[in-house]
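RESIDUES AND SHAPES:
===
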Amino acid sequence: MDYDFFKDWTIKKQTDSSLSIESPTSFIKEISTLTKQNNKYILSIDIPKNMLDTSELNHYKNTLQLLNSSNATCSFKITMPGTIISSNVGKYQQNVVTINLFELFIEEKALSFHIISKKENNHLLLYFITLIILLVLIIILIFIKKRQKD
């Protein structure tokens, strides 16, 4: 793997025993596509084998299994707009998918992910409620005026 591959990545210390590595936007654009259909977002990530060679990890499979069974974690988190309704990899809660990289490399799964989220249109519901309240008020005012004339 070329040394330049990681040159634009950012490493941030989280705690004494953890760190966060963020990829540059150019890398994300290269491996992923995000499409929107109505109020659903579909994220497809496909990391080609020639871009990220994981074959050498086979030699360390026992070590990865040991780390996975201990308190060590190596995860990849993806935050989506809206609430995630399906993902073919990892565990998801609300709008975040967490992918355990130890499990991914131990099981030698393909580096291809598909995540679907749905963004609820709460503004539309608010408009309908406001409209119903206004209609009820107008009907009440009309009824009061009619009673006053009688």
Summary: The chain is about 35% helix and 35% strand. The first strand starts at residue 10 and ends at 15. The chain has a mean pLDDT of 80.
